[in-house]
Amino acid sequence: MRLPPIRPITLDEIKDARERIAKTIVRTPLIRLELGPDFPDIRLKLENLQPINAYKLRGAANAVAMLPDAERKRGVWTVSAGNAGQGVAYAARQAGVPCTVVAIETAPKAKLERMRALGARLVPVSYDVAWKTCDARAFPGVEGTFVHPFDDDNFIAGHGTMGLEILEDAPDTKAVITAIGGGGLIVGVASAIKALKPEVKIFGAEPETAAPAALSFEKGSPQVFENWKASFVDGAGGQSMFPRMWERMKPVVDGYIVVTLEETKKAMRLMAEKARVIAEGAGALSLAAALTGKAGKGPIVAVVSGGNIDLSKFSELIGSERT
């Protein structure tokens, strides 16, 4: 399959996406996290408050809406650890077309149940198979139009709408941090922000157990992360950096911050205690990265990308966080 060449996502595309998805998504609040004078000035962009409790609805709604009628009518499918699947399933349900998700079998029960509740047919596979399917863009026995969960111009433009909101609500922003899984979130947000305010720094956050983007940045080329390990940070941190996504990220991302699992748990607990926000592991990476000080003193916007986590698991994780 010949893929379209990599190109920048334009501000006009992002503005058009904003109008297209306005009735589907929520314009999420941006709140200050009150931590005191010894900490950076951090604001939280609460994408965990989207109808699917994750940012992926922005990209999915735009991508499904942009499909030609003939392709949409065939039904859609995607690959997901849970959040992209929910986004595409939600958009497909609104469009009245069937949806299949090649889903990572170890995804939290909450994510799998939500995808089913939205009408998706699930095909459970291992993480390894899911990652390869993203590359192959095909899976035996799955029909319909494939919506890539990150390497898709329209998906990325949808995520860019978040960047417009951030600068409107916090024009004094000095840095923005988002988690990196496939890279679609950071490319979308960065494309909007760099077009409007190129001096704002964009940082990606990854867990120590799965940090191919930081490794790629260090080596100057897309890398496989040999010591990849599964963890409770299931919505971010890939096994490798897709070369196409690396090409997209290079011009718009300023740096990468790797955080420990302990730092991530601490960030989850801090958000729950200080802001009454429930974030999944991937959703807390940006705050954990901001707290390292590596993104400066702020104002920093930390994107809370999702809150889809089993509550029993959440309680166990924040209860086990060493204070």
Characterization of this structure:
This protein has two domains: 11-54 and 153-320, Rossmann fold (3-Layer(aba) Sandwich), CATH 3.40.50; 57-146, Rossmann fold (3-Layer(aba) Sandwich), CATH 3.40.50. The chain has helices at 11-21, 56-66, 69-73, 83-95, 109-117, 127-136, 153-169, 184-196, 212-219, 243-249, 261-275, 281-291, 311-320, and strands at residues 30-33, 42-46, 76-80, 99-104, 121-125, 145-146, 175-179, 201-207, 255-259, 300-304. The longest helix is centred in the middle third of the chain and has 17 residues, at 153-169. Strand 1 (30-33) and strand 2 (42-46) form a beta hairpin. The strands form two sheets. The protein has a six-stranded mixed β-sheet with strand order 1-2-10-7-8-9, sandwiched between helices. The chain has a four-stranded parallel β-sheet with strand order 5-4-3-6. By secondary structure, the protein is of the alpha/beta class. It has 13 helices and ten strands.
